[in-house]
Write a structure and sequence with these properties.
The complex is a heteropentamer.
Chain A (H helix, E strand, L loop, with lengths): L4 H15 L4 H38 L15 H10 L11 H10 L1 H7 L4 E3 L2 E2 L6 H9 L2 H11 L3 H32 L4 H6 L6 H4 L1 H14 L11 H4 L9 H26 L14 H20 L7 H33 L2
Antiparallel strand pairs in A: 1-2
Helix pairs in contact in A: 1-2, 2-13, 3-13, 4-7, 5-6, 7-8, 8-11, 8-15, 11-15, 13-14
Chain B lengths: L3 H15 L22 E3 L9 H5 L5 E8 L2 E9 L9 H5 L5 E3 L15 E5 L24
Antiparallel strand pairs in B: 1-4, 2-3, 3-5
Chain E lengths: L7 H10 L4 E2 L5 E2 L5 H10 L7 E9 L4 E8 L6 E8 L5 E3 L8 H12 L2 E3 L30
Parallel strand pairs in E: 2-5, 6-7
Antiparallel strand pairs in E: 1-2, 3-4, 4-5
Classes of the chains: A mainly alpha, B alpha+beta, C alpha/beta, D alpha+beta, E alpha/beta.
C-alpha cells in the first residue's frame, strides 16, 4: 500500500541481494547507497521547486504574477536559471585567496547534506536514527557559520568582509536561543532520538504544550537561515550581496541553493519537534505518513516566505540586543517553566 | 502591545495574497493606450507643405527636411527624423498647423542596430514635372535599410 | 556545416563585416551552446544600473505589478555585476560616469549583453550638445538592443528584453542577416 | 587597547540605495561612520548651458528631466517664472488644471519616495504596492499629455491642451480609492515595529540647523518648522483651498517619512476641492508665437515635491534666455548629509539618505 | 515685477545704515563687494529683518561683469530680498557667506565649479559637479566645447 512504498522497496531490494547469495554486509552498503541517492534526488528536486515557489509567492504577495513563461506555468524557470549559471564564466578576483575562494561554494553544501541523514521522512523512513539526533543536528548546522565567513573573507571585498563579520555575529548569537528553546521539548521527551520525539507527540503536538519555545525557535530559525527580517548578511540595500558578492555563475548558484537547503532543514526540525513529524493530525492515517511530513514542511517554508515578503530588515545592533536580551532569557524562562510543569505533572501522577 | 504592528503587516500581505492580480500580460494582452499617447511618428505627405515649422520648433533639431523647387512651388522630397535625439515632447506636432506630423500608438521601436533607428518618413525622388502621387509611407514600410 | 570560432555560416549569407563580427561575438551554434543559449535566454538577470529618468521606467515600473518583468523570470535584480547578465543602461552617461560604466561592464562575467534604453543611452539624446555627456553607450561598450524613446514605456522595455532573448537564442538575427 | 583601523567604503555611484548615481565615501570604524563625504555630479548634463541655446518654449521639455518624478511641478515653476517676467495673465481654468496636475505629480513623487524608502529598509512588498498605485496616476498623465514620465504639458501662458472628458471621472475614481491605499501603507510600513525601530530617533535634524542649511520641503517640516510656500506665500490659486501642513516633532527619519504620507492625504484633499471648483473657459492666454520677454531678470519659487523649487530667469530681450538657474531642493538638502550621518551605522546612512528623498536628475542638474 | 517683497520702511532703514548700497526700481539691492559680509550679517542678525534662510545663490556672466545673486527669505516676517554683487571680469572674487548660512556652502562650490568665481574666506572650495581635472568653466559665455552630435 502507498504508506510504506519506500520501506517495501528497501525490503524487496535487500531480499533480492540476499537471494543472489551476496554477503549481508554488501546488501547493507548497496541499500545505504540507494538511500543516499534517494535523499540527494529529494534535495535537488525540492530546492529547485522552492526557488520557483519563493518567486511565485513573492509575486502573489505583491499583486503580480510570478514566472509563468518558461516551461508549463513557469516550472522550468529555475532549471533555466541553473542552466545559465552553470555556463557562466568563473571570475576569481586577483586579490582573492584562490583556494579558499573556490572551496567555499563546494563546502557550503556539506553541512546541509550531512544533516539530511537524520531527517525522519516517514514511519521508520529515516536514514540513520541516531539516538543523539537533535544534538547531531545542531552540531553540524553550526559548521556553516565558518563557511559563510571564509567565503566573505576570501573574496577580498570590503562589502564581503562586512557581510562575513555580520554572518558570524548573527549565526552564533542565534544558535544559543535556538538550542535553549529546543531544550524544553527534549526535557519532556527525555531522549534526543528523532523517532522518540515524534512518537511522544502521539496525542498532543508540542506546539501546543510548548508555544513559547515554538515562537522562539521560529524567530531564531529565521535568523539562522539569514532570511528577512534578519537578512543582515545579504542586505541588498546596504551591502549588496554580503559574502557572495564576488561569486558569479556556479559559485553563486551553490550559495543560493545552500540557503534554500538550510531553509528545508530548519522547517524539517520545526515539524519534527513541534508539529508531530509524520504523525497524521486527528488520525487521518489514510494519507501516507511521508505525505504528511512533506505538507508540514512546505507549510513551515510558506510561513518563512510570508515573513520575508512582509517585514523590513533589522539593524545589526538591534539584532544582537534582541537575540541576547530578549530571546535567551525568554528561552531560559521557558526551560524553567517546563521543569516546574513536568515536576507538577509527575507529582499529580498522570 | 509590541507585536501588534507586525501582525497587522502579516494580515495585509495575506489579504493581498488573495486579491486580483493587476498584471497586464504584455505580449498577449496589451494595455489600452490614451488617444494622445506619444508613440512613433506618422507623416501625412499630402498635408505636408515642407514649411519646416516642425523642424524649427524641435528643441533638439531632430527633423531633417529636403525640399525641391518645382515651378516656383516648394515640394517635399525627404523627411527624416533622427529618433535617437528625439524627446517625444510633441512640440513639433503642436507647431505643425496642417496636422501633417502626428503621433501613432506604436511604441515597440527597439532595434538591433543603431543605424536603423533614424525614421525615414518620406523618401520620394524629386518629381520632374507634375506632382507624382507618392502616397505617404508610414514608418513601417519605408524603404531603405528598415528592418 | 561545421561551426568554429573562425568559420561561421553567416559569412556565406552577408559580407557586412560588422554584422559578422557581431554575430560571431554572440552566437556560435555548437549543439551544447544551443542548449546553454536556450537556458541563458530564459534567465537574463539585469544589472540594476539606473542613471536617470529611464531607470524609473526601466527598472522600477517594469518590475512593478502592472508590467511584471518577473513573468519572464528576469526580475532577479542583482546589484553586483558578478551575478548579472544584462546591463540595462537606463539614462544619460556623463563623462564622470563613463569610467564606471566600462568598469562595471568588464566586471560582468561572459556571456553578457547590453540594452541601451532611451535616447540618452543610444546617442546622448536631449543632452547631445552638452559639454559633459557621452553621446551614446556604444561609444563605451558593445550594445545589443537599442530602445528609442524618451523614457520608453515599460512594455517597450519588455519588448526589448524579448528581442534580446530571441537574439540570445539565435532565432532572429540570422534570419535578418539573409 | 586594541588599535582599530578605519576603513573607507565606497557607497559608490552604482549602489541600490543611493536612488541613482550618487557616491558617498564612508570612513568607518567597524560599521560606525566617522565621516560621510558625498560626491555628486555623475549625472551633470549641463542643462543650464543647454538652456542658453534654446527658446523659452523649447526649454520646457528639459525641465521635465530635472526632477523626473514630479515633471509637472518643474514645468509649472519654470512657466510661472517666465509669466511673472512677461506679466502674462493665465486664465482661471489653466490655473486650476495646473494645481490638479501639480498635486498629482506630488503624490506620484511621494509614492516613489515611500516605496524606495521601504526597499531601503528592506520591505520590498511596500515598494510594489506603491508602484501599483502610482500606475493609476501614470494613466491619468497619459490621458492628459500623452507620456507617462516626461510630460512637458505646461506652456507659457497656460497648458498645452484642455483636459480630455474621460479625465475627470477617472480622477474622481482615483480620489475615492487612494485613501484606503494610504491606510494600507500605514498598516504595512509605518505601523511596523521593525520599521519604527529602524527609523525612530535616527538622523535627527534640529530645526535651527535645518533652516541655516537651507533644507526645505518635507525634510524641513518634519523638524517642526512651518514653511510651505503654498501656505506661507500662496502663488497661483492655492489660497482658495484649505488644507493643513503636516509637521513632525523630532525631525528624525520616521517623521520625514510620515510627513510625506500625510502630505499625500492633503494633496488628495486639494485635488478634490480643485475638481469641484474647476471653471470653464480657455486654457491658454493670448501669447505671441515667438516669445520675446523684456530684458530683465526674475526669481520665482514654488513648493516642489522635494522642497522649494526656484527658477532664476535672465532675459536680454531675444527669444532665447540669457541665463536660467534652477534652485534645486535635492541639491541643497544634501548639504548637511556629512554631519547628519556621523556616528550612525551603514544601515542608518541608507535610512537617512532615503529619508532625504533626493533625485539625482535634480541634484546634478 | 518686484525683485523682493519688503516694505519700503525697512529698505530705508537699511539705506541709512549702509549708504553704499543702491536700490533699483524693482527693489533689488546692489551691494559693493567690500561691504557684502557686514551687510549680510546685519540682515541675518538684526531682529527686525531676521533673514534666516538663504534660499538661492547663483551667478550670471554679463558682457562686462560677473554678478553674484543672493536670494534671502525671512521666515518670521515673510520678506524676500534679492541682493546682487558685481565683480570684475578677470579674477572675480567675493567673500564667502558660509560663516553665516550653511546652505551657501554647496551653492558657492557650484558657482565656483561652473563660473570660476573665487569665494574667499572658506574651506574646501573645490569642484562639486565636474571632475577635478575638467578644464575651463562651462557656464561662462566664452566657453568652447564640441557637442556629441554626429
Amino acid at each position: 500500500m502507498v504508506e510504506n512504498i519506500f520501506v517495501g522497496f528497501a525490503e524487496w531490494l535487500r531480499s533480492l541481494l540476499a537471494a543472489a547469495g551476496l554477503p549481508a554486509l554488501f546488501g547493507d552498503i548497496v541499500l545505504m547507497i540507494v538511500k543516499v541517492a534517494g535523499i540527494l534526488a529529494f534535495i535537488a528536486i525540492s530546492v529547485l521547486w522552492i526557488v520557483y515557489m519563493e518567486r511565485k509567492m513573492a509575486a502573489y504577495f505583491q499583486a503580480r504574477i510570478g514566472p509563468n513563461r518558461v516551461g508549463p506555468r513557469g516550472l522550468l524557470q529555475t532549471a533555466a536559471d541553473m542552466g545559465k549559471l552553470i555556463s557562466k564564466e568563473i571570475i576569481i578576483p586577483r586579490a582573492a585567496d584562490k583556494i579558499v575562494f573556490l572551496l567555499m561554494p563546494v563546502l557550503i553544501f556539506v553541512p546541509s547534506l550531512l544533516l539530511f541523514a537524520v531527517v525522519p521522512f516517514g514511519k521508520n523512513m529515516i536514514a540513520v536514527d541516531l539516538n543523539v539526533g537533535v544534538f547531531y543536528f545542531f552540531a553540524v548546522a553550526s559548521v556553516s557559520t565558518i563557511i559563510f565567513w571564509a567565503g566573505g573573507w576570501a573574496s577580498a571585498n570590503k562589502y564581503a568582509l562586512i557581510g562575513a563579520m555580520r554572518a558570524v555575529a548573527q549565526m552564533i548569537s542565534y544558535e544559543v536561543p535556538m538550542v535553549l528553546a529546543i531544550l524544553g521539548v527534549i526535557m519532556i521527551v527525555g531522549s534526543m532520538k528523532m523517532s522518540d520525539i515524534i512518537n511522544a507527540q502521539q496525542n498532543v503536538w508540542f506546539i501546543f504544550t510548548q508555544p513559547v519555545a515554538f515562537i522562539i525557535y521560529v524567530i531564531a530559525a529565521t535568523a539562522e537561515t539569514n532570511r528577512t527580517p534578519f537578512d543582515l548578511l545579504e542586505g541588498e540595500s546596504e551591502i549588496i550581496a554580503g559574502p557572495f558578492i564576488e561569486y558569479g555563475g556556479m559559485g553563486f548558484a551553490m550559495w543560493f541553493l545552500a540557503e534554500y537547503a538550510n531553509l528545508i532543514l530548519v522547517s524539517v526540525l520545526a515539524t519534527t519537534l513541534f508539529l508531530g513529524g509524520w504523525l497524521a493530525p486527528f488520525g487521518l492515517t489514510f494519507i501516507p505518513s511521508w505525505v504528511w511530513f512533506l505538507l508540514k514542511i512546505y507549510f513551515m517554508i510558506w510561513v518563512f516566505m510570508w515573513f520575508r515578503w512582509t517585514y523590513p530588515r533589522i539593524r545589526v545592533d538591534q539584532l544582537m540586543n534582541f537575540g541576547w536580551k530578549v530571546l535567551v532569557p525568554l528561552s531560559l524562562a521557558n526551560i524553567f517553566v517546563t521543569g516546574i510543569g513536568m515536576f507538577i505533572y509527575r507529582a499529580i501522577g498522570w | 502591545m509590541f507585536g501588534q504592528g507586525l501582525l497587522k503587516g502579516l494580515q495585509i500581505t495575506l489579504q493581498e495574497l488573495f486579491t486580483k492580480k493587476v498584471t497586464v500580460q504584455y505580449p498577449e494582452e496589451s494595455l489600452p493606450l490614451a488617444p494622445r499617447f506619444h508613440g512613433e511618428f506618422v507623416l501625412d505627405v499630402e498635408q505636408c507643405i515642407a514649411c519646416s515649422l516642425c523642424a524649427n520648433a524641435c528643441p533638439n533639431k531632430v527633423i531633417e527636411i529636403e525640399t525641391a523647387k518645382l515651378d516656383k512651388k516648394r515640394v517635399l522630397t525627404g523627411y527624416m527624423m533622427r529618433l535617437q535625439y528625439c524627446l517625444f515632447c510633441g512640440l513639433c506636432v503642436e507647431a505643425c498647423n496642417k496636422g501633417a506630423i502626428r503621433f501613432s500608438q506604436k511604441f515597440e521601436m527597439a532595434k538591433y542596430f543603431r543605424d536603423q533607428i533614424p525614421l525615414i518618413l518620406y523618401k520620394g525622388e524629386p518629381p520632374v514635372q507634375e506632382e507624382q502621387g507618392n502616397t505617404g509611407i508610414t514608418a513601417g514600410e519605408a524603404e531603405g535599410t528598415e528592418v | 556545416m561545421d561551426v568554429t570560432r573562425e568559420q561561421h555560416p553567416i559569412e556565406k549569407m552577408t559580407n557586412d563585416s560588422s554584422l559578422i563580427q557581431q554575430v560571431k561575438r554572440v552566437i556560435h551554434l555548437a549543439p551544447l551552446e544551443k542548449i546553454f543559449n536556450l537556458a541563458r535566454g530564459y534567465s537574463l538577470w539585469p544589472l540594476g544600473f539606473g542613471l536617470a529618468c529611464c531607470a524609473i521606467e526601466g527598472l522600477m515600473a517594469t518590475n512593478a505589478p502592472r508590467f511584471d518583468l518577473s513573468r519572464f523570470g528576469y526580475e532577479v535584480l542583482r546589484s553586483s555585476p558578478r551575478q548579472a547578465d544584462v546591463m540595462l543602461v537606463a539614462g544619460t552617461i556623463t563623462n564622470k560616469m563613463a569610467p564606471y560604466v566600462v568598469r562595471l561592464y568588464e566586471q560582468m562575467p561572459e556571456p553578457k549583453w547590453v540594452i541601451a534604453m532611451g535616447s540618452c543611452a543610444i546617442s546622448g539624446g536631449p543632452f547631445v550638445d552638452s559639454y559633459y555627456v557621452v553621446p551614446g553607450a556604444d561609444k563605451l561598450i558593445p550594445v545589443d538592443v537599442y530602445v528609442p524613446g524618451c523614457s520608453p514605456r515599460p512594455d517597450a522595455v519588455l519588448h526589448a528584453f524579448m528581442m534580446l532573448r530571441d537574439k540570445v537564442q539565435g532565432k532572429v538575427v540570422l534570419e535578418n542577416a539573409r | 587597547m586594541l588599535r582599530t583601523e578605519e576603513i573607507t567604503l565606497n557607497m559608490g555611484p552604482q549602489h541600490p540605495s543611493t536612488h541613482g548615481v550618487f557616491h558617498v565615501v564612508l570612513k568607518m570604524d567597524h560599521e560606525v561612520i566617522t565621516e560621510a563625504r558625498p560626491i555628486c555630479g555623475y549625472l551633470h548634463r549641463g542643462i543650464e548651458k543647454l538652456a542658453e541655446a534654446r527658446t523659452y518654449t523649447q526649454f520646457i521639455p528639459y525641465t521635465d528631466r530635472l526632477d523626473y518624478l514630479a515633471a509637472m511641478l518643474n514645468n509649472t515653476g519654470y512657466v510661472q517664472a517666465v509669466e511673472k517676467l512677461m506679466e502674462i495673465e493665465v486664465p482661471e481654468r489653466a490655473e486650476y488644471i495646473r494645481v490638479i496636475c501639480c498635486e498629482l505629480s506630488r503624490i506620484a513623487s511621494h509614492l516613489i519616495a515611500v516605496g524606495t524608502y521601504s526597499v531601503d529598509i528592506g520591505g520590498i512588498t511596500g515598494f510594489m504596492y506603491c508602484l501599483r498605485d502610482r500606475e493609476r496616476i501614470m494613466d491619468l498623465f497619459e490621458m492628459v499629455c500623452g507620456s507617462r514620465l516626461t510630460l512637458s504639458y505646461m506652456r507659457i501662458g497656460g497648458v498645452a491642451e484642455d483636459l480630455p472628458d474621460e479625465f475627470i471621472p477617472a480622477l474622481c475614481q482615483f480620489l475615492d480609492e487612494m485613501p484606503s491605499r494610504l491606510d494600507e501603507y500605514d498598516g504595512l510600513i509605518t505601523g511596523n515595529e521593525i520599521f519604527q525601530a529602524r527609523t525612530k530617533h535616527v538622523g535627527l535634524l534640529d530645526p535651527g540647523v535645518a533652516i541655516n542649511y537651507g533644507i526645505s520641503g518635507p525634510n524641513l517640516r518634519a523638524s517642526g518648522v512651518f514653511w510651505d510656500l503654498r501656505k506661507n506665500r500662496p502663488y497661483s490659486v492655492y489660497d482658495r483651498f484649505d488644507f493643513e501642513v503636516p509637521l513632525g516633532k523630532r525631525g528624525d527619519c520616521f517623521d520625514r517619512f510620515t510627513c510625506r504620507i500625510k502630505e499625500m492625504r492633503q494633496s488628495l484633499k486639494i485635488i478634490r476641492q480643485a475638481v469641484e471648483q474647476l471653471p470653464e473657459g480657455p486654457v491658454m492666454a493670448k501669447v505671441p508665437k515667438v516669445l520675446k520677454p523684456p530684458a530683465g531678470d526674475v526669481y520665482h519659487e514654488i513648493e516642489g515635491a522635494k522642497g522649494i523649487l526656484g527658477y532664476y530667469v535672465v532675459s536680454d530681450g531675444s527669444n532665447k534666455p540669457y541665463r536660467i538657474h534652477v534652485r534645486r531642493p535635492s541639491f541643497i538638502n544634501l548639504g548637511f548629509l556629512n554631519e547628519l550621518c556621523k556616528g550612525w551605522k551603514i544601515a542608518d546612512v541608507v535610512a537617512i539618505l532615503g529619508s532625504l528623498d533626493i533625485v539625482l536628475g535634480e541634484v546634478d542638474c | 515685477m518686484p525683485g523682493s517683497s519688503i516694505p519700503s520702511t525697512v529698505i530705508d532703514g537699511l539705506k541709512d545704515k549702509f549708504p553704499a548700497i543702491e536700490v533699483s526700481e524693482n527693489l533689488t539691492i546692489t551691494v559693493p563687494e567690500a561691504e557684502l559680509l557686514s551687510f549680510m550679517r546685519e540682515l541675518r542678525d538684526n531682529p527686525d529683518y531676521d533673514f534666516n534662510f538663504l534660499t538661492n545663490l547663483t551667478a550670471v556672466d554679463y558682457p562686462d561683469n560677473f554678478t553674484v545673486i543672493y536670494n534671502l527669505v525671512s521666515f518670521k516676517y515673510g520678506y524676500t530680498l534679492m541682493a546682487k554683487v558685481n565683480l570684475g571680469k578677470d579674477e572675480p572674487a567675493v567673500s564667502s557667506l558660509t560663516s553665516l548660512w550653511g546652505s551657501a556652502d554647496w551653492q558657492e562650490r557650484e558657482v565656483y565649479d561652473l563660473f570660476g568665481i573665487i569665494f574667499t574666506g572658506r574651506h574646501n572650495l573645490t569642484r562639486i559637479l565636474l571632475e577635478d581635472g575638467f578644464a575651463g568653466y562651462p557656464l561662462r559665455k566664452d566657453f568652447q566645447w564640441v557637442g556629441g552630435r554626429e
